[in-house]
Amino acid sequence: MHQYFLRMCITPAIIVQLLYLISFCLCCIGSLGAFLARPIGLTNVLTSRRSARAATFLSDVQSPADARSPSAHSPPASPVPPNPPQQSEVQERVDTVRDVIFSRRNCRTFLPKEVPLEVLTDLMTAAQRAPSGFNMQPWVCILVREASVRERLAATMLGEKNRSKIKEAPVVAVFCADLESQRQMPRIVALIKKDRERRLAYRATQASSKSPQKPPAKSKSLQRIPFYVSLFAGALRGWLIRYLWFLIRYVIFAVLRVFQPLPVPSMAETWAYKNTMLAVQTYMLLASAYGLGTAPMEGFDMVRLRRVLMLPDRFSVPLVVATGYPADAPISRTYPLLSGRLPMDEQVFSDFYDRRLAI
């Protein structure tokens, strides 16, 4: 019985994954040791930002793609923008965004009206602008529009209400988190390099002749991106490799945390889910601006959903969003039947946990 179990479990694929993991761990441990031996350690990279190299890495890699701080070599920013917006313009934008946020709700019924393709394209363009760690963009989205596919997709949902939404909605956006996003590493590095060159070229054109821009110092952050993604995200190929690498990272970080601050490592699925949900929220907010209703759902059978959409094992689905024109009347932030929320003083604190915020 034990021999039969071993023959079933120890397959050539798993042996190859184990060998790959061992070699990968040796390389990572060696790289980590060499990096810690340098004057710039993980403490500086993650927290202090005291050196130009650490600042360059954090601004170009560690921060989300659209929330990066200026490079250490960029010219000082002007204290006053050339054309500061008027207070009325600012308030108008604030009111518009606030109305979009408050008008978003969980739509229960949809009209049998198709969503134009150009609207869907704009929604996905906005979702692509959502930030992601290391700019890895670890997600894909499947827009299910055919009625026959939606019928089969509805069969994978839990509960009659969820199934009804999938059948009625003209579009179902299935957001899939990529658990092996490191496959895209060469393309991501090329994108970051191209973005950096564009920024440098733009700053060169904006630099004043009286204060010429200094040439940026050479940085090895591009070469370090694969190492840091594997270290913090763990988005490697193969579920066994990802799990064992998580355990190894957990032990290594627990030891090094005695000497310097370090993040708590998470599973690749957790990291990919966090980044995917940023894109989901962006998608739903712009859909609300278009007058569309959305119904995010997490109650479904993942195994059956994979079969229907022919989804590879490297992807996991955190959320399915039914999208379409709502059958009921639109709402606004003055709508009297908005769903209730907890009191703000129970969710928002000042400086420390459970210290009430004075409002």
UniProtKB/TrEMBL annotation:
Biased composition (Low complexity): 63-75
Annotated Nitroreductase domain residues: 102-325
Record's keyword annotation contains Plastid: no
Residues covered by region (Disordered): 60-91
Single annotated GO MF: oxidoreductase activity
SUPFAM superfamilies membership: FMN-dependent nitroreductase-like (SSF55469)
Matching InterPro entries: Nitroreductase (IPR029479), Nitroreductase-like (IPR000415), Nitroreductase_HadB/RutE (IPR050461)
Pfam families: Nitroreductase
Listed transmembrane segments: 14-37
Compositionally biased tracts (Pro residues): 76-85
Keywords (A to Z) from UniProt: Membrane, Transmembrane, Transmembrane helix
PANTHER family in the cross-refs: MALONIC SEMIALDEHYDE REDUCTASE RUTE-RELATED (PTHR43543)
Protein name: Nitroreductase domain-containing protein
Species the sequence originates in: Vitrella brassicaformis (strain CCMP3155)
